Description:
FAD/NAD(P)-binding domain; 5-stranded parallel β-sheet
Amino acid sequence: MTDTRRVVILGSGPAGLTAAIYAARAQLFPLVIAGELSSTGDQPGGQLMLTTDVENFPGFANGIMGPELMQAFREQAARFGAESVTTKASRIDLSSRPFEIWTGKSGATTPSYGAETLIVATGAQSLMLDVPNEGRLLGYGVSTCATCDGFFFRDRPIAVVGGGDTAMEEALFLTRFARSVTVIHRRGELRASKVMQQRAFANERIDFLWNTSVTEVIGDTKVSGVRVQNTLTEDESTLQVEGLFVAIGHRPNTELFKGQLEMDDSGYLRTFERTRTNVDGVFACGDVQDDRYRQAITAAGSGCMAAIDAERWLDEREAPAG
Ligand code: NDP
């Protein structure tokens, strides 16, 4: 028999766990399908599990390590009765209620869980270069978030990889701290919007390395340089930098919902009336529906909103008639 819950939350980053705290305190006994670690980038706990110091999450005057912050979220949700399972949803059917969720690799005909309401908080992943030492030095000089980590690079030479708006935004932001910012782009022209290009070109602290790919990150315990190759001449050289910001785009984790939930052209879930999706009873929060702010605090805020919206949605349906 399918185990049907009033609230099922997919994802265990700041959005999912904040939704769990609120739903649990509302006595809805939420189930969190937390995800599981995979070589394709799945990361229970979300992107904060891949960072070191978090200095911009309010309430921690001296900062906190990303994994430690997520552990505190988990304990807080558990304290109020949220249940969590370390598995991944492999298939979802939103065509009728209760919604049906299959987990793990099982090819079972019966779904693992039913859900009267579903909160989608599956997050997004930064695209990575997939070059040697990049993963090992993530959080030790390799970063995917200038807003989070720029401050650690005061007066240091750093590089930003990418030629889109995110890369320009990161590079411009980083000039506040870094001694020098080198944008490394694989082609001879930027993809970024004209206005962002103009701003970046006008900034004297930004240099451009055109037609260049990063082939390796160098460093034992922290980044000391990057190996680069000219894509036209194939000449190789080393650039001495202490930080490498990878800004080559993000991918929202929405594969599971294709054909069921509305998405924009980049695959981010569309929300209407705050956290509601196009399917009645399905709510979305965090980076899976946000390509703009992408902060732990905004994800947590939208997780709170999704839980309140789900609670009200259930109340409206369960209130006695008349
Ligand atoms: P984009 O997809 O626009 O750009 C990605 C960049 O990374 C491209 O220049 C691409 O190169 C490069 N790239 C991709 N893969 C690799 C790789 N493996 N190795 C090296 N370089 C790579 O992503 P963004 O995150 O920049 O932007 C996403 C969307 O968000 C866009 O629509 C953008 O306009 C929007 N945005 C808007 C902002 C604003 O208005 N202020 C701020 C940030 C984002 P190539 O050009 O050769 O394909």
